[in-house]
Design brief:
alpha/beta, Glutaredoxin, five-stranded mixed sheet, 4 helices, 5 strands, 41% helix
Length: 108
């Protein structure tokens, strides 16, 4: 899963994909967050299983993402945001891989 370094990079990805009808999965994570680390293998499996869905990681401890956290109202980790056509379609808090996959299937 590719890590997005800053808000500008995230906006570029979203803008470039907003007209191609691709689902984007953003994993807001932290190295110190045990549930976040437990979720990583599940997200990697989903990334392999749903190759038409684009998965990205955002490190909440990266100061370049302070604005990103505010824009997406991130207050707990892990949080997974699904974006389609430039719009947030789902926001999931917690390490529930089954719920994440259900939302991927719903919005893919």
């Amino acid at each position: 899963m590719e890590e997005i370094p800053d808000l500008n990079s995230l906006n570029t990805i979203i803008n470039n994909l907003s007209n191609v009808n691709k689902l984007i999965v953003l994993d807001f994570t932290a190295s110190w967050c045990a549930p976040c680390q437990a979720l990583v293998p599940h997200l990697n499996n989903l990334n392999t299983k749903y190759q038409h869905v684009l998965f990205y990681k955002i490190d909440v401890d990266n100061e370049e993402h302070n604005d990103t956290l505010n824009i997406y109202n991130i207050s707990a980790m892990p949080t997974v945001i699904l974006i389609r056509n430039g719009e947030t379609v789902a926001s999931l808090v917690g390490a529930n891989a089954t719920e994440i996959e259900t939302k991927i299937l719903q919005y893919q």
